[in-house]
Amino acid sequence: MHSTEKENIIRLLLSGQEANIALGLQLARSQNISIAEFKKTIEHLYTWMYKYEPDLEDSDWVIRFLLKIHTITEIKRIKVSLQEIPDCIYLCRNLQYLTLPENKISGLPATIGCLRELRKVNLFKNQLTRLPVEIGKLTNLESLTLTLNQLKELPAEISNLDKLQFLYLAGNQLTTLPYKIGCLVQLRVLGLKGNQLTRLPSEVGSLSELKELTLSDNQLTQLPDEIRNLNKLQTVELRNNPIPDSEQERIKSLLPNCTIAF
After folding, report:
1. Rounded to 5 degrees, what angle do the CA atoms 120, 122, 126 make?
2. Strand, helix or coil for residue 159
3. CATH class of 71-261
4. Can you tell me the distance from the alpha carbon of 41 to that of 133, in angstroms, rounded to the nearest whole number?
5. Are 232 and 210 in contact (CB under 8 A)?
6. Which long-range contacts does 15-18 make (Cβ < 8 Å, 24+ apart)?
7. pLDDT the model gives residue 1
8. Which of 38, 37, 39, 134 shows the shortest CA–CA distance to 85?
9. Tell me, what's the pLDDT at 2?
């Protein structure tokens, strides 16, 4: 019974309505139901967001913060040595912009998949080694910046981001791309400079909106024939790849209206 009552109380606390939050706290007290763990989670999120702990002697801080959570559309923490994104980030349901460049974040929580309103994520120059498959649930995402991390591969689920327009992956350790990359039909810019790519999947030919493709400083020796399908492509950077002269001429013939830098 206590379990169900506790769930109802938590639901009230997360409703975003002041009257419900106050009622939830009152019920917890009157029914002697501990919500200490929940408060600890909220306190952790507060400290992570604001860099200082809440005033625990202020009995109303929980109400104010639980109301605030529902209005937060942007979190920006730049170069402050963050080492994590907490699991409880999922509480910020209306978050649209997550800007955390130049930190020390090594992984993303699976709960990031709950942030369905996210439009732009910037994790430039962190220490990410992998992405959770839940990244594929961010179907409103338009821009994803993962430049200068330590990614060795991308989950196939990234192909679900069908509103993605900008994908920046320069300076990682990618050796391949998922073949479903071609599902990113709104993609305009794909930045892959400074990885360890030896080939591109033929499915890149399905990126019909692509305008800019940066592939310098990889290990490519050729591009797939399907690259010719990218009619909107304007610039391709291929500097510092072991591409033979004959292949360079072939690439030029496939993309006659494109500016190509070898």
Report:
1. 155
2. helix
3. alpha beta
4. 24
5. yes
6. 16/66, 16/67, 16/69, 16/70, 18/63, 18/67
7. 44
8. 134
9. 58
Sign of CA dihedral 78, 81, 83, 84: negative
Amino acid type, 115? L
Mean pLDDT per 10-residue segment, the chain (262 residues): 82 94 94 93 95 88 94 97 97 98 98 98 99 98 99 98 98 98 98 99 98 99 98 99 98 98 98
Which tokens go with 99? 């800007």
The domain segmentation of the chain, as residue ranges, is 1-70, 71-261
User: Collapsing DSSP states into helix, strand and coil, what is residue 122?
Assistant: strand
Could you tell me if 42 and 10 are in contact, meaning their C-beta atoms sit under 8 angstroms apart? Answer: no
**How many residues are recorded in the chain?**
262
Structure tokens at 13: 């606390």
Closest to 90 (Cα-Cα) out of 71, 69, 119, 104: 69
